[in-house]
Amino acid sequence: MGLSIGSAELGSLTGLISGAGRAVADVAGAFTPNAEASAARAATARSSALAQFAAEFQPRRTWFDALIDGVNRIPRPAMALGTIGLFGWAMADPIGFAARMQGVALIPEPMWWLMGAIVGFYFGARELSAARSRSGITPEVVEAAAASIERIEGIAWRSGEVERGGVGVPSNALTPGVAAAPDPELDLDAVSSVNPELGAFLLRVRG
Question: CA 155, 160, 165, 170: dihedral to nearest 10 degrees?
Answer without folding.
Answer: 30
